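Review box. Two proteins, two foldings.
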Amino acid sequence: MSAPVTSPEPAPIALPKTSESAELLKIRHSMSHVMAMAVQKLFPAARVTIGPWTENGFYYDFDNPDPFTEADLKAIKKEMGKIIGRRLPLERIAVTREEAEAKIRAQNEPYKLEILEGLQEPITLYTLGDQWWDLCAGPHVANTSELNPKAFELESVAGAYWRGDETKAQLQRIYGTAWETPEQLAEYQRRKEEALRRDHRRLGKDLDLFSIEDEAGAGLVFWHPRGARMRLLIEDFWRQTHFADGYELLYTPHVADISLWKTSGHLDFYAESMFGPMQVDEREYQLRPMNCPFHVLTYASTLRSYRELPIRWAELGTVYRYERPGVMHGLMRVRGFTQDDAHVFCLPEQIGDEILRVLNLTETILSTFDFKTYEINLSTRPEKSIGDDAVWDLATKGLIDALDRKGWSYKIDEGGGAFYGPKIDLKIEDAIGRMWQCSTIQLDFNLPERFDLNYVAADGSRQRPIMIHRAILGSLERFFGIMTENYAGDFPFWLAPEQVRLLPVTDEVVPYAEDLLSRLKAAGIRASLDRSGDRLGKLIRTGEQQKIPVLGVIGAKEAEDNAVSLRSRRDGDLGSVAIPTLLEAGQEANQTRAARLNLPAA
């Protein structure tokens, strides 16, 4: 008997967006019903819950006494093919609540009864032939003959909780994908394989960058030396660019008295995503889910003049948020992460210039990591919001003005702003066409009001500053995961945790290799020496598997010539290179944050 394949529900592999027609969505919705019919034909004790279409396919959740196995999936797929071949009609029927309840009770489907309780009339169901039905609003194809039996696949089984609530029954979710043609299915599978090849969780383990240790708790990241080295490089670059752009850095606490979170409003609006408080000296302290209130308190520590504004403060601040077990995913969704937060306190008339400044800094930072294509949304005032119309109009105009001056195209998301102010959200496109939410710029009238922030205006009156929240990388952990997948672990030279690995061919040249290793390290080049004594072919294969940017082969001739034979992952065989040339090229690549060594022509 095959081993059960049920497991806690995994976060899906991110795939490039595809244009999906209304017909394709109907195909997927219909295919989910076909799958449910097949499951209940083969497993009469299985009870169905919900089965929607998804971005790349469909799923259905089942309550079945036994775990579904790989062999079961094959049998279900075969039965689905038979159902499709019978050319069964899918028909929509309107029923009364009483009629629906009677049909459900006759079939002993308890989950459908709970679903029925939440439905508004008219209540509709879809039949599949005269043998199977489910509560559904549609739409579906007219007949199973419109489904291509060679253009679908059952992909996996995962655990899922009823209504997404871990206190309720655990179900089994069968995932499938469906397309109009076999060619579309093949292309989807190709893209999925490429996404799997780039999966940062696998690469993080293979390249020894980070781990998440169960003993410490879910969603907490352990940075290994190689990953920590890369993180330090990212942080150093981030700090340098912020200092150059007029920011000062802050360091603030990880916890605060719970009254701070009451004042900020987080306990009212965000409590379910916060960890519980802790008792210290008869006071309640709270792990911070956000950095903003700490920057607000720093601003409020002294009376400010309009002459001081704008004030730009940045912090790599670690925050802690409760994420439910089913949504955590490698570095993308964790419970402890470091935001590249910054807050600008400015005058209303300074908004446009400050936003443009943030957009320029965003481009500088993201393009350094080879993210140069963006999708931008400008979100305006929602129905429920705070602040005067005049301030909202001025703030929104400032965002639009900055985007227009930057020359970036954007979409308006009417009413999509936060209750405390309008915002700009930026998605980045990676090497295989996927879009990732990354940077955000938000204007805030709420916290200055809640904390009674002021500045002394030119006329001596007390006025409220405008507060700009912004994050460019978002969180270091999530950005590191996105970046790893973008590069497929093949990092540019300046960012690689190990830039050069020396491969001595014989024991006789090891002293020369050790001296060269010292010179490389003294020049700030991250280098290592493979002392395993393996044959050269294996040394090279190991280095390539570990994605080392440059391998330096050292034999008797190289030692005699004070040189090293270089092999580059990006440029192939570079030939024999004099040591001073290598040192100079490595230092230049690090200073300019280059993807490869720039060696002079031979």
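Next protein.
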Amino acid sequence: MDTGKGLHIQMFSIHGLLRAENMELGHDADTGGQIKYVVELCNALSQNSKVEQVDLFTRLIRDKSCSDDYSLPTEQINNKFRIIRIQCGGRKYIRKELLWPFLDEFVDKTIKFIQQEKKVPDLVHGHYPDAGYVSRELARFFGIPFVYTGHSLGKSKKKQLLNQGMDINDINKKLKIDHRIDMEEVILKSVDLIITSTNQEIEGQYGLYRNRTLPKYQVIPPGIDIEKFHPYYHNTFSSNNKKEEALFASASVTRELDRFFQHPDKPIILALSRPDKRKNIGGLIKAYGEDNELQAMANLAVFAGIRKDISLKEDNERDVLTRMLLLMDKHNLYGKMAIPKKHDFEHEVPELYRIAAKKRGVFVNPALTEPFGLTLLESLACGLPIVSTHDGGPKDIISNCQGGVLVDPKDSAAIAQAIKDILAHQDLWNEYSKNGIMNTRKFYTWENHVKDYVTAIERLCREYGSSDIQVRKPSHSIGYRLSDLDHMLITDIDHTLLGGDKKELADLMELLEKNRNHLGFGVATGRSLESAQKVLKAHGVMTPDIIISCVGSQIYYGNAFYRDKGWETHISKNWKPGPMRACLEKIDFIRPQKKLFQGPYKLSYYMAPGKDRLARIHHVLTQNRCLYTLIYSHGKYLDLLPYRASKGKAIRYLSYKWEIPLKNFLVCGDSGNDEEMLRGDPCGVVVGNYSPELAVLKSSKKVYFADQSFAKGIGEGISHYNFINQAKG
């Protein structure tokens, strides 16, 4: 594996419609400031000399209702930054709460991508809990640091929704909030560093969690593009084309606003957010509508996301947008209030802030909760004073920038009064405008953010390895090891690896250990993980790189026995052990094996041979519409697995996931339990003490029948295929 010359960072933001330019902020609840922050962070990191590569992973979407941009597997932004799209859970766009069942698929395909690239990252950084889960799994697997940014947290959201009178069952049904909180607790137990935008996040949000004291935290305020969000009184353009785009955007926004206003020359009270109940857009309209003096002083412009047809929106968004219209009608705000249906974030939004500033207006964020408040920084950088909620991140922004005031978002009279105070007092407006322009450039640039970020992750990476970040390589990691291998020996345990002479087993172990750098070692067994561990240890067998247990229904890796959840997600489809067990209870010639030999994806029975007995089992199960894989071995063991599971299918899955060709697997067995994995492209070895049921494989040119038994037979097979020299390449 190439470790490169600088930091290789993998970012994860899975749920949003995410692209590098013309982001559709406000498209829905999942396309807010978080995706803008992540893209701009990656872009800024790619400009840093200590960063070699930044990859931003998100979900691939191929949906007629979405732009084709989201279906590109790779989007190269510059020579050091690209967006990688991984397909999981189908191709249709679905909201983030529905993605939880498909995240292990995302993990698997990301591992496959890393293997194809032959380059393991220095660290992974997850944004939001779904990406946090994915990052945690990858970090554990590759033995690399795990960084997390929550952006918003489930406990805070749950508390608010309950306070609004929502039923907990409805909240869980739609938002999976308790599952999200459970995952956040797991993340807090595993994460190496949490990066927040404000101190309030640490105290007021993470402070609600049981595992709050376990992680390290670092406050690194996000940056803004100070060229794009330049002050209203001058223009800063790097090209004539940009100047023309900005002028066109300004004219377009002005024309759209003038369409709504009777008196377009008045100052503008500007609000810009997603149509979400937490954003409290209705609270601002109510404050404006109840204050005639404020209506006389200024117009109100509310940009609440992008919409075509309100009736097609999700419930939350539809309710917010409908209430906006009802409040506008209730307070008769026609001619005073603008509610445009869309805006171009790339060009129109910066001009929108400047238009409002030129008219000496005010930007208002009345959100009930605000983890940070990026729009506040953007407006301040353009010279537009702010009135903001006193919840969360705005406290730090006001403290640093001194460009506006905080209010209680539930107090409509206080919101109105704060706006009027700024509009009525020109000296105050000038002071706030100047402070905002100067202090955003002092405290909130991407250059400062990246400098602090790189310092923090360099320190973190050194803790994981050597003092030299550029040569750090956690060779103990099973992920790194498997990524370096392209040949693998997989053997059954009982009567194949074990059962013969101790010296012959020791000789085989010595051979495998000697060639460990280029040959992987795994076992495939009907035993459970615990049983396999116990018997291997008792016989002095080295810890395998891979244990395929329970007849192929579970896969574990390395010394930590990391469970492959992606495999279990894959095989669990239509697996219904309860009904199957009930069906089989009616059959008198089988009896269940001990609990020790059962598994979550394996039902095990004893069955003596008998004419048509297997046919009877198949008849009963198919009659009851059960999907399954049936394996009968040694004339007495009957195992039922999910229809996607078996030792052979597990090996094919490993081949796919780790980019190891099937022909580079050497597979050893002795019974019908092993028949499927011995067939096909792998190099098959049947040891000399094999059960009669494997005689059917003698006609196969890809299966070698050894003269020697047990471990010595495996060694004979290795020699027959010249497998060691093949692995050395």
